[in-house]
Design a protein that fits this description.
The chain has 325 residues and is an alpha/beta fold. The chain contains eleven helices and twelve strands. Strands 1, 2, 3, 4, 5, 8, 9, 10, 11 and 12 form a ten-stranded mixed beta sheet that branches.
């Protein structure tokens, strides 16, 4: 039964047949949209390296979310830009912090929208690192208390899910224990379980004003060369109480994403990060790529590799394109 009896092209001959036999289907239900929220009123500061992305105040965010909700995007991931920074990142866990304010406003106006909060200190510390500094390095264990306090403050403001992104050892367990003790045992954790020290984060650091003031984050974020280590990190987070595990970035680590999904069977998120977004935007602006086809192909590939959830700055555009068919 060889050629010409077997002709795989028969099942590619029309769009209708291709749709019938399509193995992976990307939908709006797969997407989460990241947002950057700042203090003030009427704030809409475009991020130069991320066309279409801006730092916005809460009132502007609420207007933007009208479209997000209308498009059927299930949720947002909230990052905050504080009014002031200090060595302890105090606004991260303040009841009146920018994320806490944003969460309360969003849940009041869009109660059905899933609100996930990024839990970290880097945007709030004067040194730009994800934990407390001692003798020039990030001190893991004392940082856990502040990370856990941040998660509890987000849950108290109404966050539906918290996402610790700091990569401190033991932070998922600390967050889970703190949430449970505070009465938020039903709030799930989406951990940045395998977060790599990637070159693709540059535009995000402009958007979140979170670049470290000295050194880098390679002592706590993962070495991009390692995949087995990612599985160990993922299993540790699951054992500590993570409900969803995340791989970040997405494109350069699709092998890791695939392995995590295959080996754990747990819900897996993938973060298609700022550098991936910026590269596509830059190429599309120059006419080098068809933006719509490229974005949908990449997001489909991320889902095909095993992602149940895709966090992407393309979410609004992708939702529109998927609606158009």
């Amino acid at each position: 039964m060889g050629f010409p009896v077997v002709r795989p092209r028969r099942l590619r001959s029309s769009e209708t047949i291709r749709r019938l036999v399509r193995e992976t289907v990307l939908t709006v239900d797969d997407l989460i949209y990241p947002v950057f929220v700042a203090h003030g009123q009427g704030i809409n500061r475009p991020v130069e390296s991320m066309p279409g992305v801006a730092n916005v105040s809460v009132d502007v965010l609420l207007r933007e979310l009208e479209e997000v909700a209308e498009l059927g995007i299930p949720g947002i991931l909230v990052f905050g830009l504080p009014a002031a920074k200090d060595e302890y990142g105090r606004e991260a866990y303040s009841d009146d912090g920018i994320v806490q304010r944003a969460v309360r406003a969003v849940k009041e106006n869009y109660p059905g929208l899933l609100v996930v909060t990024d839990v970290c200190l880097c945007e709030y510390t004067s040194h730009g690192h994800c934990g407390l500094i001692k003798d020039g390095t990030v001190d893991n264990d004392p940082s856990l208390e502040l990370i856990a306090r941040t998660a509890v403050s987000h849950a108290a403001a109404g966050a539906d899910m918290v996402a610790p992104s700091d990569m401190m050892d033991g932070r998922v367990g600390a967050v889970r224990a703190a949430l449970d003790e505070a009465g938020f045992n039903q709030v799930p954790i989406m951990s940045y379980a395998a977060k790599y020290a990637s070159a693709f984060y540059g535009p995000f650091r402009e958007a979140a004003d979170s670049a470290p003031q000295f050194g880098d984050r390679r002592a706590y974020q993962m070495d991009p060369a390692n995949a087995d280590e990612a599985l160990r990190e993922v299993w540790q987070d699951l054992e500590e109480g993570a409900d969803i595990v995340m791989i970040k970035p997405a494109l350069a680590f699709l092998d890791v994403l695939y392995r995590v999904k295959q080996e754990t069977g747990h819900p897996v998120a993938a973060y298609s990060v700022s550098g991936e977004y910026a590269a596509i935007k830059a190429a599309a602006e120059r006419g080098w790529l068809d933006e719509r086809r490229t974005v949908l192909e990449i997001l489909t590939g991320i889902k095909r590799a095993g992602a149940d959830i895709i966090i992407t700055y393309h979410a609004r555009d992708a939702a529109r394109w998927l609606r158009q068919g």
